[in-house]
Design a protein that fits this description.
single chain; 472 residues; alpha+beta; six-stranded antiparallel sheet; five-stranded antiparallel sheet; 11 strands; 41% helix; flat; disordered N terminus; helicase activity; hydrolase; SWF or SNF family helicase; ATP-binding
Length: 472
C-alpha cells in the first residue's frame, strides 16, 4: 500500500468479524435476511447490513464524483467542529488506509491504519430516523409520482433530499448527528473516524441507497413498504379511502364499456412529429421601421421563442417528462440582464448584439465575457463573474478549509486572496472563485480581463486544473 501502510497491526479484519455482539457477525433483527446488494458493490449480508471491500487510493484531485458523494462531503464539512481532524482524515482516506466498511442502521465501521501499519477499529454513528420520520418520508415519496417511480426503479434522485427536508426528514447529517468512536482512545473526532466518514462519500458514489440504510432502512424493506403504501393509496382512491368515508364516484369509463366499444372506435391518430428544427422566421420588412421597433431584433426574438417552444415540446414528449421537476420555461425567473446575456449567447448578429450591450450597460467586450460565463454555467456563472450575491461567511469558511485539504505537499499552489471568494495563483494567469452555493469556478486572464475557463467543479483542485488548462 502507498505511503508505507502495511498490515493491520493490532486489529485485523478477522478481529472485526469475530466481534460478535459488538457488531459484525450479527444479522438484522428484522424479518429480512436475504442478500440485497445485487450489483451495487456490497458483499452478501442481510437487509440490515452491507459490507464494502476496501478501496484503492484516490487518484487525481477530486474525492467524490457524484451528487450524493459531494452532498455528504458538504454536510460533513459543514457540521464538523474540528477542521484539522477532517483534513488529516481526508488524507488518510485518500491514501487507501481505510479497510472494508460495514454499513448498518445507525453505524458504519472499518479498520483504519496509521502510517506504521497499526490498525484501529473506527465507528461513526449516525442518528437513525424515528418511525414517525419514516412515515413522513414514505408519504412524501408516494405522493410524488416522480419519487415513487424512481425509487421503485432503484434510483435515488438528488432532489429527494430537499423534498424530504420539506417533510421534516433530514437525510444528510446535521450538527450533532455524527458520533465517532475509535479504538485509538480519542474521545471525539479523530483522524481515523474522520477518514471513515470521508470514505462513506465514495460508497455513496457507488450506491446512494447506503444513506437510507445507515439512517435505518434497508433496501428490501423500504421498497416493500413503498409498494404496499402505493397499492393501498391507489385502492383507497377507488374505494373512498380505508377510513370508511363516503365512497367517491369513480372517474373515467367502466372497463366493460371500453371493451364493448373497442371494435367500433376508430384508432387513435399517430402523434404529430416534432419538427426537425424551428420554422423560419417571417420576413419583417417594411419601407419604414415602425416607431421604436427594430424588425431585425423582433425577428430574432421570434426565432428565439420558436426555438424555446420546440425544446419545451421535446421535453414534454420525453419518457422522463414528469419524473424530474424543472421550470416550465427555459427562461423562467431570469432578470432583465440575465435574459439579455442569454439572448446574446445565441449569436444574434452585430446589430442585435449592439442593442443588447446598450440595454445591459455592458461594453462589447464585457458582453462577450458575460456570454462566455453564460455558456459555462448559465445564471450561476454570470453571478460569479459579476460578483452578484457573493458567498457568505459560512461558505467562505468552508472554502478556506477546502483549499487547505485539496492538495498535498508540493502539489499545493501558491494562492493570493483577490477579494471575497477569489484566489489568484501567484505567477500564473489563473484564478479560483467560489459561488454563493459553494461551487468552484475556474477563471483565467485574457487580454487583461478575467474570463471563465469552463464549468464549475465540486472542489478547488479540479477547478484550478481547468483554469490552468490541465484537464486534457
Amino acid at each position: 500500500m502507498n505511503d508505507g501502510y502495511g498490515a493491520y497491526g493490532r486489529y485485523d479484519e478477522q478481529d472485526m468479524h469475530d466481534e460478535g455482539d459488538d457488531g459484525f457477525s450479527g444479522h438484522d433483527e428484522g424479518e429480512d435476511t436475504a442478500d440485497t446488494n445485487g450489483t451495487n458493490g456490497g458483499s452478501g449480508g442481510p437487509d440490515g447490513e452491507r459490507t464494502f471491500a476496501a478501496m484503492p487510493p484516490v487518484s487525481g484531485r477530486g474525492f467524490a464524483g457524484t451528487w450524493w458523494g459531494q452532498a455528504w462531503l458538504s454536510a460533513l464539512e459543514g457540521t464538523a467542529l474540528d477542521s484539522e481532524q477532517l483534513t488529516r482524515g481526508r488524507r488518510i482516506a485518500r491514501s487507501g488506509a481505510v479497510g472494508a466498511v460495514s454499513v448498518r442502521p445507525g453505524r458504519i465501521t472499518a479498520v483504519v491504519r496509521d502510517r506504521d501499519g497499526t490498525g484501529h477499529r473506527a465507528d461513526v454513528l449516525l442518528t437513525e430516523l424515528t418511525e414517525p420520520a419514516w412515515e413522513r418520508f414514505l408519504d412524501m415519496a408516494v405522493d410524488s409520482a416522480g419519487h415513487i417511480a424512481a425509487l421503485l426503479d432503484r434510483e435515488m434522485p438528488p432532489h429527494l433530499v430537499e423534498d424530504a427536508a420539506t417533510a421534516g426528514v433530514d437525510l444528510l447529517p446535521g450538527i450533532g448527528d455524527l458520533e465517532p468512536e475509535c479504538g485509538c482512545g480519542a474521545w471525539d473526532l479523530c483522524p481515523h473516524t474522520a477518514a471513515l466518514a470521508y470514505q462513506l462519500a465514495r460508497l455513496l458514489d457507488r450506491d446512494p441507497w447506503v444513506l437510507l440504510l445507515v439512517r435505518g432502512r434497508g433496501e428490501r424493506r423500504l421498497l416493500r413498504e413503498l409498494q404496499e403504501r402505493s397499492a393501498a393509496r391507489a385502492a383507497g382512491a377507488v374505494e373512498g379511502g380505508a377510513g370508511g368515508g363516503v365512497p367517491q364516484e369513480p372517474r373515467g369509463v367502466p372497463a366493460d364499456r371500453v371493451y364493448a366499444a373497442a371494435g367500433s372506435l376508430p384508432p387513435l391518430p399517430a402523434p404529430v412529429p416534432v419538427p426537425g428544427a424551428p420554422g423560419p422566421v417571417p420576413v419583417l420588412d417594411a419601407e419604414a421601421d415602425p416607431a421604436g421597433i427594430d424588425p431585425r431584433a423582433l425577428g430574432f426574438l421570434a426565432g428565439d421563442a420558436a426555438a424555446r417552444a420546440r425544446r419545451m415540446l421535446l421535453a414534454a414528449l420525453s419518457p422522463e417528462h414528469g419524473r424530474r421537476p424543472g421550470p416550465a420555461s427555459p427562461v423562467g425567473g431570469l432578470t432583465y440582464d440575465q435574459d439579455a446575456v442569454r439572448l446574446a449567447a445565441a449569436a444574434p448578429g452585430p446589430a442585435v448584439l449592439a442593442r443588447l450591450a446598450a440595454g445591459t450597460g455592458r461594453q462589447r467586450a464585457g458582453l462577450e465575457t458575460a456570454v462566455r460565463a453564460w455558456r459555462a454555467g448559465g445564471a450561476d456563472a454570470l453571478a460569479v463573474l459579476d460578483g452578484v450575491g457573493p458567498p457568505g461567511p459560512v461558505v467562505l469558511d468552508r472554502a478556506a478549509a477546502a483549499l487547505e485539504s485539496a492538495w498535498e505537499g508540493t502539489e499545493r499552489p501558491r494562492l493570493r486572496a483577490a477579494g471575497a471568494g477569489r484566489w489568484t495563483v501567484v505567477g500564473r494567469d489563473a484564478q479560483l472563485r467560489v459561488g454563493a452555493d459553494g461551487r468552484w469556478w475556474p477563471f483565467h486572464r485574457e487580454a487583461g480581463r478575467w474570463v471563465p475557463s469552463g464549468p464549475c467543479a465540486g472542489d478547488p483542485a479540479a477547478a484550478l486544473a481547468e483554469a490552468l488548462g490541465e484537464t486534457g
